[in-house]
Amino acid sequence: MAGSAIRSKVFSVFALVLAGLAGILAEDATIQDGPLVNGDFEAVPTGGFSDDVLREGGATIPGWKSNGTVELVSVRQRQGPMILIIPGGAHAVRLGNDAEISQELKVEKGSLYSVTFSAARTCAPLESLSVSVPPAASTVDLQTVYSDQGWGSYAWAFEAQQGDVSLVLKNPGMEEDPTCGPIIDDVAIKKMFTPPRPKENAVLNGDFEEGPWLFKNKSLGVLLPTNLDEDATPLPGWIVESNRAVRFVDSDHFTVPEGKRAIELVSGKEGIISQMVETTPRKQYMLTFSVGQAGDSCKEPLALMAFAGDQARSFHYMADSNSSFELAGLNFTAKAERTRIAFYSVYYNTRIDHSSSLCGPVLDGVRVWPTSGSIRFAPLGFGFGPFGAALVVVLIWVLKMS
Ligand SMILES: [Ca+2]
């Protein structure tokens, strides 16, 4: 009797430990940053890849659920006279009219996530893609082709309302040819981190170091389409308030003024990023930033328009063999407790080597700080940041003393 009691105790303790372990594992099972399960559509489906076969409903794409005319497409596959564009590897997925693919994700409730995916058009000139994690949803315009490769990577963000969510990519179009529709590839996710507001700078994420997932082997950057929601943005702090995209670029593939990431303003006046910064009314401020070239053979002239409150000015980047960027600044007096700062490219630039690839000036290191009530170090100091400004103050003091 005693033995069986001990055995049952040991068993229940063992069961508890197991349950605890399972709980810890379940807790840890939230999705990791990076590609989704079969996010590149290269996993071989049951029965192998079979070209030219439409998979109506119940298609078996490993890791994904599908609905409607969803087709796995392969490199060198043709659509009439055209060879289909496959953004990465040898396979991708094509969504016919009203067709969708989805994947269940375990996320952290209340956290912000960004989704990166690559997309290419096939036949229609007005293709778009609906991206959603219900109830959050957005339609990404694939009309503009930003590179000569015929495809682009895009980012979209959502706030997780619950732990189990479903990411849905859907073709909302109704084309005459039901096999037409966008090609999707390389789907990845990243949990976003909103950097703290630096003490001496009113701009959040002004160095653009926090942003969506970037593929190491992809050299086209990530397009940030229209997004007016400052709480659910793949570029924390910033919104894209225009109908065309700006490009998030990294130092692995582009020339970046500061750190590892920056923004390339690729859509002329139609690609506007902005942020509302906290200011004190009637106080004087300075907006400073770096403007440069991305090292992607962008045809000059390169210039951007900067806005701070009621002030606006254009800044040209002059090619310089010593530096890929220059520092620029704009003084303004705050009129309210929040002031809008915004940037767009003055020109519609394309690359020297590929006239169908859009490019533009690079923006980085955006800072706003008060200048009133202190020595006007701005013209001297802004090139050196707050530390340089302090140095200028010390220098003036030393000069006064001598
Ligand atoms: Ca940066």
Notes on the protein architecture:
With 402 residues, the protein is mainly beta. The chain has two domains: 31-192, Sandwich (Jelly Rolls); 193-371, Galactose-binding domain-like (Jelly Rolls, Sandwich). It is built from three helices and 27 strands. The strands form six sheets. Strands 1, 2, 4, 7, 9, 12 and 14 form a seven-stranded antiparallel beta sheet that branches. It has a six-stranded antiparallel beta sheet with strand order 15-17-18-27-20-23, with no helix packed on it. A hairpin with a 2-residue loop joins strand 21 (302-308) and strand 22 (311-317). The N and C termini lie far apart (97 Å). Residues 374-385 have low confidence and may be disordered. The structure holds calcium ion. Calcium ion binds at residues 207-209, 256, 258-259, 261-262, 364.
What profile does the largest beta sheet have? 7 strands, antiparallel
Distance between the termini: 97 Å
Mean pLDDT: 85
Q: Given this structure, which CATH class of the largest domain is correct?
A: Mainly Beta
Which ions and ligands are bound to the chains?
A: calcium ion
Strand content: 35-45%
The topology string of helices and strands comes to HEEEEEEEEEEEEEEEEEEEEEEEEEEEHH
The stretches of 5 or more residues where confidence is low (pLDDT under 50) are 374-385
CATH architecture of the largest domain: Sandwich
Structural class, by secondary structure, is mainly beta
CATH topology of the largest domain: Jelly Rolls
Counting DSSP H or I runs of 4 or more residues, the number of helices is 3
